[in-house]
Amino acid sequence: MANVVVVQPSRAPSTWQSGVMDCCDDMGVCLCGCFCYFCLGCQIASDMDECCLCGTTYALRSVYRNKYGIQGSMCSDWMYHWACSPCTLCQLKRDIKARKQQGIF
């Protein structure tokens, strides 16, 4: 009789490398997010091998969150995006930079 997989293996839950409101941790990203929002979105989309038009959407945040096992939901992604789009975009870029430095991006 074959072994039946009852529970799929998964990685340990992860967290964001920085908070949504930690914009001043990286002033370059912060300024880009505030004054050139769509440019930052395109940089993020490029980092993730996605279409530039997807860079500023909460769906891209959800894809990233799921890829790295970061806890949350599409609803929370939408709420963060709705409340402060530049802050959430900056958080995503800071997280990408941190994971690149750690060699896990």
Textual characterization of the structure:
With 105 residues, the chain is mostly helical. The mean pLDDT is 89.
Secondary structure topology:
Blueprint: H1 27-35, H2 37-47, H3 58-67, H4 74-83, H5 85-102
Helix pairs in contact: 1-2, 1-5, 2-5, 3-4, 4-5
Q: Note the main sheet.
A: none
Radius of gyration over all CA atoms, rounded:
15 Å
> What's the count of strands?
0
Number of helices: 5
In terms of DSSP E residues, the strand content is under 5%
Could you name the ranges where pLDDT drops below 50 across 5 or more consecutive residues? none
- Principal-axis shape equals globular
State the separation between the terminal residues, measured CA to CA: 40 Å
Helix content: 55-70%
Structural class: mainly alpha
Order of helix and strand elements from N to C terminus: HHHHH
Mean of pLDDT: 89
Summary tags:
105 residues; mainly alpha; 5 helices
Q: Summed up, what is this model?
A:
This protein has 5 helices and no strands. The N and C termini lie far apart (about 40 Å).
